[in-house]
Amino acid sequence: MEEEQQLHSQLHNTHVKLLAFDLLSLSLSQTSSSSSSSFSRRGISLSSAEALGIITSRDHKPYKFLRFTLDDGTGCVNCVLWLNHLSSPHVTRHHTPLDASLIAASAARFADLVHLGKLARVRGKISYFRGAVQITVSDVVIERDPNAEILHWLECINLARKCYNALPATPS
């Protein structure tokens, strides 16, 4: 039992590789201890995800955010990359000015990579906005290998079968 709880905890703190249909079917549950939302798959708590797909839309508001959509063939995942690190009270309260400027520079570099039609891999926190699951992006990689998409599919299926589905669901 303790080992199962440890595995559940490890998945909560890991960027789980998910296909869009799986990501979009996560259950939303409000936690009483904080105002943030929590997500679960088969009763297992998840907080971060990795997704890969073709960028099909892009909405850029300079110095505020970049919102884009990834299509992996099973669905479309909304993603948001925040670009307001230098003006955000949250960032200035929790980071030194040097750290904030480094985070802002990283986000700006990631935003420059996002173009329509590119195959992108994103990692970030699972979040909820306007009734839909999205990824609040922490990093973006543009894939140059044409096999990356099928490899991601195979990894997601393998992880679902051998890891995510192998864990017994936690009682709700």
Automatic annotation (TrEMBL):
The UniProt entry, under InterPro entries, shows: NA-bd_OB-fold, NA-bd_OB_tRNA, RFA2-like
This protein's superkingdom?
A: Eukaryota
Keyword check for Nucleus: yes
> A GO molecular function for this record?
DNA binding
Residue span(s) of domain OB = 53-141
One Pfam family it belongs to: tRNA_anti-codon
Keywords associated with the record: Chromosome, DNA-binding, Nucleus, Telomere
Task: Please give an example of a GO cellular component term from this record.
Answer: chromosome, telomeric region
Q: Where in the cell is it found?
A: Chromosome, Telomere; Nucleus
Name of this chain's protein: CST complex subunit STN1
Origin species, per record, is: Senna tora
